[in-house]
Amino acid sequence: MKIPQKLLKIYKEFDNCDRCKKENNPLLHILGGGRFQNPQFLFLFINPTHLNISSHRDYKGKRRYPFIGVRYFYRFLSEAGFLDNKIINDIYTKGWQIEDENRIEQSLINNNVYITNLVKCTKYNPESPSKDIIKQDFPLLQKEINMVLPKYIIAFGKLPLKIITDKDICLKDYFKKIKDNSYKPIKSVDILGKIYKVLPCYFPVGRGNRQGALEILSYIRKRYVN
Question: Rounded to whole angstroms, how far apart are CA atoms 221 and 82?
């Protein structure tokens, strides 16, 4: 799928980052990937790290979208039903191959998913970006979201959920809503004149709650997949 020209212009704005220029950051920005127009779901994460092999300047692949080379993340998506199992089996058998990025992208397209981050700057340090950095980058993220036009935004973790809804929501309490079938979308903040439906989810890797995230995504697939 070709990236729309207007979205490419937004990506170029992300790449023209004054912070990374001033810091001489050797790592490339990680942009969005998957279904670039009208996906059912936009997966919103926090920020990329050097574990994404496509952030390195000697990487030979074509794309720079979230979690390239991070096979345990894509195994999670496979278990959640958002990625073809065969791709994951091949990656764990043969190791990560350049062509896997295209296979993953096509599978995300087939599953109606676009993945992006609050902040696109890649860091060696896995810590979350500061409030100031998020505030600086949020206007461009808003443009990106309105260009992609998802039906739902799945916010992974407390920070993306707070930024996109401006609400302090306890994910543990919201997780309980799945058990009594009262889990429902939350309205986003005004995003350049548009309001989106936001679905809260645990962050699935690192210090997040992988099993909780799997249960939430399983519920979302049953209730919110067309």
Answer: 9
Q: Where are the domains of the chain?
A: 5-224
Distance CA 175, CA 216 (A): 7
Residue 92 makes CB contacts below 8 A (sequence gap 6+) with 71, 75
Q: Taking the chain (226 residues) in consecutive chunks of 10 residues, what is each chunk's mean pLDDT?
A: 89 94 95 95 95 93 88 93 93 92 93 96 90 94 97 96 94 89 95 97 90 95 88
In contact, 44 and 141? CB cutoff 8 Å: no
- Give, in order, the Cα–Cα distances in Å from 90 to each of 71, 87, 93, 103: 11, 5, 5, 11
CATH number of 5-224: 3.40.470.10
Strand partners, 191: 194
Is the pTM here over 0.85, yes or no?
Answer: yes
